[in-house]
Amino acid sequence: MRRQHSYHRLFYHLVFNTKEKESFINTQADEDFLYSMMKKKAHDLSAYLLEFGSWYDHVHLLVRSPPSVLLSDVYGQLKGYSSWHWNRRRPDRPFKWADGVFAATVDTCDNEDLRKYIRYQRSRHQMNSLEPKWEPDD
User: Fold this and answer.
1) Collapsing DSSP states into helix, strand and coil, what is residue 47?
2) Total Cβ atoms within 10 A of residue 119
3) How far is the first Cα of the chain from the last one, in angstroms, to the nearest whole number?
4) What is the mean pLDDT of residues 93-119?
5) How many other C-beta atoms lie within 10 A of the C-beta of residue 123?
6) 3-class SS at 116?
7) How do residues 39-86 score in pLDDT, each as one tens digit?
8) Which ranges in 1-138 belong to alpha helices (H)?
9) Looking at domain 11-134, which of 3.30.70.1290, 3.10.180.10, 3.40.50.970, 3.40.109.10 is its CATH number?
10) 7: helix, coil or strand?
11) Looking at per-residue confidence, does 129 or 120 come out higher?
12) Are 66 and 48 in contact (CB under 8 A)?
C-alpha cells in the first residue's frame, strides 16, 4: 500500500495578555520560563514555537501547527500549561492569562519580518516602535 504524505505551512501569530493586563513578565527569567513551557507544550501537540517575545503584560508567538490540531487547542493548551507551571513555581505570585487571544494567520512572505518583530518585543515597546498590523486592537 502506498503511503500518502502531506506538508503544511500553517503559521499563526498569537498574542496572549495577562489577566487585567497585570505586569507579570518582569525579568528575563520570567520570559525564559514561559518560553520553555510553551515550547514544550507546542512540541507535545506536534506544533512548533518558532518565535517568542514578551512585554510585561503580554506575549507574542509565531507557531506552526499541523492541520490536524485545532488552533483553539493550541492556544488553550499553551496558556493553560504555562500558567499551571508558573503557579507551581511561584505560588506567591498567582498568574493567569486573560480570556481570549489575538490570532492571525501569517503569509510565508511575512514570516521573517514577523519573527524579528516578535523577537525584539521589549526593545520595540521601550522605543514605542510598534507595528499596528501585528498588534491586537485593544
Assistant:
1) coil
2) 15
3) 53
4) 91
5) 10
6) helix
7) 999 999 999 999 999 999 999 999 999 999 999 999 999 999 999 999
8) 28-44, 71-89, 111-119, 121-126
9) 3.30.70.1290
10) coil
11) 120
12) no
